[in-house]
Amino acid sequence: MSSLEVKSAENPYWRSLEELADSPQFRVWLEAEFPSQAEAAGMSRRRWLQLMGASLALAGVGGCRWQKSEILPFARRPRQRIPGVPEQFATAMELGEGALGLLVTSYDGRPIKVEGNPSHPQSLGATDALAQAAVLELYDPDRSQAVIEQAAQPEGRTWEDFTRLVASRRGQWKATQGKGLCVLAQPSTSPTLGRLRDFLLTRLPQAQWFEYEPLAWDHPREGARLAFGRPVRMQLVLDQATVIAALDSDFLAWHPAAVRCARDFASRRDANGPWMNRLYVVESTLTLTGAAADHRLALQAGLIAPFARALLETVRRDLATGRASQPHTDDAKPRRFLAALAGDLVMAAQQGRPTLVIAGPRQPPEVHALVYHLNHLLGNVGKSVWYSEDPR
């Protein structure tokens, strides 16, 4: 008997208010949807599904045809190019403020696979999720494929149209030294693009060049101005740091050199190695770096700046007195965390072991200036961190 016709004596269940009311109209509708007298005549349900599945599969195969195409030989075949044999070429993918060296496998001129370049210092044969997904952009039908003229209505143009437009405006821009010409570009560390930008602004001094990135690294740059008087780029050497303090910094996932950082960090997490690093993380939301931390403190983003100032004062005092701070059990958790972190940093510095303090891009420039000062006090410059010129 169908379960729809069985009434439970206790704890009855109903699917709708109509079923609860059990009106004659509802019973008629229910019988029409689930006929109680319906029986499988001559063929079981299993057999019917088998036949229908086979029929649909054969119908799909019968509709397939090989697309007609012409095979044309190269008039001058490129060197070391064999049709049908995949080939690899080295390239780099720029994302944000960093670049990742890649090896791309190409099949008859079509890139099909992305891997890390083992000879590139930032990748060392590894990639991230964005690099793996980048090859899909080449086959995305909605990707940007043409020049768009933003008039009353956006209209597609060809590169030849763009070249003719620039040629027609060249005389006007030269006469006005580029006044009214604005270029909006993504931030780039490419030296070639930098030379072209400088050449354009030298020839047209009244022109303006703007760069925009939704998730920019402007705060570390401005923090360097406060600390050094000029923008510099902070380069991390995580495989040399014995104690690492990350202040709202997800350097294992969101960093221009995240792939290299993850490899260097993991190289010192071997229990059988000569020594292991220790990671302290202070953050407002859980990140990949926070999940890998030995000690993690959940703190509001606005309170990380006071925490950094207190850390600097504690480290400076302990280095002056020669005594590392010790946490007290009766202190609040942030104070215990601060004392333990400062004590670890100072003890490592006294023993000549390099440490590292990092701040994330969401923190204000003042926090980054404090971090630069901390690394200097702890003697980390030239060991676990060094500074390079900002390419921008």
Question: What are its keywords?
Answer:
392 residues, alpha/beta, N-terminal domain of TfIIb, Dimethylsulfoxide Reductase, domain 2, four-stranded parallel sheet, three-stranded antiparallel sheet, extended
Can you describe this structure?
The strands form five sheets. A four-stranded parallel sheet has the order 11-10-9-12. Strands 1-2-3 form a three-stranded antiparallel sheet, covered by helices on one side. Helix 7 (218-228) packs across helix 12 (365-377), helix 10 (304-321) packs across helix 11 (333-350) and helix 10 (304-321) packs parallel to helix 12. It has helices at residues 17-21, 24-33, 45-62, 129-137, 159-175, 191-203, 218-228, 258-267, 288-291, 304-321, 333-350, 365-377, and strands at residues 87-95, 98-107, 110-116, 147-150, 154-157, 182-185, 208-211, 232-236, 243-247, 278-283, 295-298, 355-359, 385-389. The longest helix has 18 residues, at 45-62. The mean pLDDT is 86. Among the domains are: 87-137, Single Sheet (N-terminal domain of TfIIb), CATH 2.20.25; 169-216, no CATH class; 218-389, 3-Layer(aba) Sandwich (Dimethylsulfoxide Reductase, domain 2). The protein has 392 residues and is of the alpha/beta class.
